[in-house]
């Protein structure tokens, strides 16, 4: 092969890798945008339009419960789609998850409210929310592996951090959308304004599907398929031979998931209803924090290629634990500046390294033939236990302890302690081949 042919082949390979990296980030961002729209509107709209025949606090709790229920369905989505991903391939699975998530989100934007169809309104809303949970349950593992399995060990941390941008990018898009729409008169916002982001997400879904349809299968999966190293029933093999790794992954997830949903979702209701902040002030603080996170995540991914995933994750977890009490104290000062500073530190500085290295670190624990299943089930179990329940638990603690934030801070500390215990069992593998 001539030097010219080698150069052309290298250029084609680079283009394919870059497209796979783009597909992992864009698809993940769209899905999280859809997912966070619901979380943000749970405390602004759904408690008023779909859970209306109850006490306001109970209505908010029910709204958060509908948000949290999807986290309990996410492990099922992880099981279903990871089975497809480990048997058939990553690419086809990611097209399925994006289609399911996008369809459910679009239909939420069309739902009649409680006053129109009665009890069917919350039932249909919860059903579509569960469909979102199924989609996101299978999406995360596939998007991470699309990036990680197209990388070399020298840049695996950086590649693995790119799909993790989906969370802050999706949250930023959702927050900015809602912030713009809340400038509408309240009657218009509650009547039709809140529906626009759900309906317009269909355009983003079509763009994501177009990008994903032309990507190749990952080299690692191709190699496993050619060698015949494909698990007959990936879930069975995962729990038979790798159950400890699944539990370790779930435990390590706690520090990343629970605190984030408190800082980014629960805070919207807490700061506006209990501390007197305006909705715009809170949404702007969350948006700024997520913008900082978008810059930090690839930087932390790159850093993990030098010093390893485990040190960064341990450092972020300890910082999260230490900042739990100062965070709520800064909010209690009832200053827009301190609210913004606290949110930027919590999400943009402390949470960013956790999010950046999590996907890569979890991928390095499992072998190729059950990797999709292993990271999906472990990640979604952790999210179910300490993620989707976090806003609901935080609100319940707030009401049980006379509006005191101390129990919520202790709840964050508990999540971090469990993660630190789990991290002890994880070996650093930055210099190892997948």
From TrEMBL:
Localization in the cell: Cell membrane
Gene3D superfamilies the record matches: MFS general substrate transporter like domains
UniProt cross-references to CDD domains, sorted A to Z: MFS_ShiA_like (cd17369)
Membrane topology, record value: Multi-pass membrane protein
Organism this protein belongs to: Paenibacillus alginolyticus
Keywords per UniProt: Cell membrane, Membrane, Transmembrane, Transmembrane helix, Transport
Domain Major facilitator superfamily (MFS) profile stretches: 20-430
InterPro entries per record: MFS, MFS_dom, MFS_trans_sf, Sugar_transporter_CS
Pfam families: MFS_1 (PF07690)
Membrane-spanning ranges: 20-41, 61-81, 93-111, 158-180, 192-211, 282-300, 312-330, 336-354, 375-398, 404-426
Biological classification of the source: Bacteria, Bacillati, Bacillota, Bacilli, Bacillales
Record protein name field: MHS family MFS transporter
């Amino acid at each position: 092969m001539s030097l010219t042919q080698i150069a052309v082949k290298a250029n084609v390979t680079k283009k394919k890798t870059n497209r796979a990296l783009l597909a992992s980030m864009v698809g993940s961002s769209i899905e999280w945008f859809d997912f966070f729209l619901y979380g943000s509107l749970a405390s602004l709209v759904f408690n008023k339009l779909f859970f209306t025949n109850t006490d306001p606090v109970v209505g908010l709790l029910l709204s958060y419960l509908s948000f949290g229920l999807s986290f309990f369905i996410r492990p099922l989505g992880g099981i279903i789609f990871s089975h497809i991903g480990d048997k058939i391939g990553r690419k086809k699975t990611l097209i399925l998850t994006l289609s399911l998530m996008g369809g459910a989100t679009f239909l939420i934007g069309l739902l009649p409210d409680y006053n129109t169809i009665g009890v069917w309104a919350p039932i249909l809303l919860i059903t579509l929310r569960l469909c979102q949970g199924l989609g996101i349950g299978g999406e995360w593992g596939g998007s991470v592996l699309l990036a990680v399995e197209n990388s070399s060990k020298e840049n695996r941390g950086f590649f693995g951090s790119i799909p993790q941008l989906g969370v802050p990018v999706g949250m930023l898009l959702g927050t900015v959308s809602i912030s713009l729409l809340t400038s509408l008169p309240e009657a218009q916002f509650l009547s039709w304004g809140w529906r626009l982001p759900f309906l317009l997400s269909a355009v983003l879904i079509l763009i994501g599907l177009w990008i994903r349809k032309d990507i190749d299968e990952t080299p690692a999966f191709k190699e496993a398929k050619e060698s015949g190293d494909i698990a007959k029933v990936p879930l069975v093999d995962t729990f038979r031979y790798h159950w400890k790794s699944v539990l370790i992954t779930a435990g390590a997830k706690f520090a990343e998931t629970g605190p984030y949903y408190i800082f980014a979702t629960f805070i919207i209701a807490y700061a506006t209803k209990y501390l007197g902040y305006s909705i715009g002030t809170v949404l702007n603080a969350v948006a700024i924090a997520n913008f900082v996170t978008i810059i930090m995540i690839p930087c932390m991914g790159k850093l993990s290629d030098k010093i390893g995933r485990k040190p960064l994750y341990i450092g972020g977890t300890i910082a999260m634990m230490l900042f739990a009490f100062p965070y709520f104290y800064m909010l209690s000062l009832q200053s827009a500046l301190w609210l913004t500073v606290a949110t930027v530190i919590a999400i943009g500085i402390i949470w960013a390294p956790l999010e950046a290295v999590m996907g890569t670190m979890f991928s390095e624990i499992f072998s190729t033939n059950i990797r999709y299943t292993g990271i999906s089930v472990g990640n979604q179990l952790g999210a179910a236990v300490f993620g989707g329940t976090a806003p609901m638990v935080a609100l319940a603690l707030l009401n049980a302890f006379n509006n005191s934030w101390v129990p919520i801070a202790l709840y964050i500390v508990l999540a971090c302690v469990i993660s630190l215990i789990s991290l002890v069992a994880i070996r650093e593998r930055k210099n190892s081949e997948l």
